[in-house]
Amino acid sequence: MAEPIRVLVVDDDSKIRTVVRRGLAYEGFRVVEAASGEEGLEKAREHLPQFVILDVMMPGIDGLEVTRRLRAGGDEVAILMLTARDEVKDRVEGLETGADDYLVKPFNFEELLARVHALLRRRTALAGEVLRFADLEFDVDAREARRGDRRIDLTTTEYNLLLLFMRHPRKVLTRDVIMDHVWSYDFEGESNVLEVYVRYLRGKLEAAGEPRLLHTVRGAGYVLKDG
Questions:
Q1: Based on the number of CB atoms within 10 Å of its own CB, is 44 exposed (0-12), middle (13-18) or buried (19 or more)?
Q2: Which of 57, 127, 140, 220 is the most exposed place for a label (fewest CB within 10 A)?
Q3: Whole-model pTM?
Q4: What is the arithmetic mean of pLDDT over 60-76?
């Protein structure tokens, strides 16, 4: 059974958040809410959403700045902006900032859902692209990794673990985030299953003596980085 798509809804209007959350949850999405831009950025780091529904007009850090910071950090998550402003220049600004689509308030939930599905289909169509980081290449569809000319065979868990790191390079991923995304549940007690699989994956990535890419950040988690 496929893991539900993770959606982050960021809006300072609690009524809108509730309507969107309930509707998307009914459709099978896994929804996290944030009431401000600051909280939205924090939740994005914690939950690594695949889709963000983001209000433009918020006090403090607004939706445009949230989008800028996500894109500046290399996050390619799909972003649908919500706004009460229907001026062409406002929509252009949002799209140029890095949003994928724009929906004007008040909106019909069915239209929002259709736009979410359309953006996800567009992203799925790009899934055949090969992910690259340093000298590591990862063909998602072929489930194959390479360092230079050397092919790396991966188990299903190793594949899922490497995919998570390749989709979030240079970001420190906590143990909880990794466990949630790769295993989808918490292991009881002090299980070292994550450490074991990181060791397996490192062994395969470095089998020919290549420089380390998967680093431990003591007290924080793990990060895919060069150097």
A1: buried
A2: 127
A3: 0.68
A4: 89
